[in-house]
Amino acid sequence: MTKSSTAVKELCRYQGFTHEYVPLVVKEALERRLNEQVIVGVNRYAADEEEPIELHRIDPEAERRQCERTAAIRAGRNQAAVSAALADVRAAAGSDRNLLVPMRAALAAEATVGEVCQVLRDEWGTHDALRR
Asked: What separation in angstroms does the CA of 105 have from each of 35, 42, 73, 109, 130?
């Protein structure tokens, strides 16, 4: 019998309910705390030292050319169509509708991927792994 199983049974006896009704979350939390549940890279098989990550450096000239292309597309597109398509993406994101169709329509209207992603961030927010 593992330490977590013993702890869960003690808790159940103390609280007056049977072992079967302990939520799995509580059992898993105890197993993690007692290092009985293996989490690769966290409590087992973690690297002794971090390997350096080689970052890709973007050529400033390539960045300038891409910014010029994006500005040209924005200048030549039908902004009313883009705004309507992005509004449809927002409406779909706030409902249970399939997002693929309005996203494809927004991109076909020459909305940028960044603009579509911003609509989704505005609607859903962003994930922060460090926030608890």
From this structure: 49, 43, 16, 6, 35
pLDDT digit string (tens) for 97-132? Answer: 999 999 999 999 999 999 999 999 999 998 876 665
H-assigned helices in 1-132 = 3-15, 24-33, 60-76, 79-93, 100-108, 113-124
Given a contact cutoff of 8 angstroms between Cβ atoms, the answer to whether 9 and 19 are in contact is yes
Are 77 and 110 spatial neighbours (Cβ–Cβ below 8 Å)? yes
Q: Six-digit token pair at 33?
A: 């705390």
The answer to whether residues 112 and 70 touch, using CB atoms and an 8 Å cutoff, is: yes
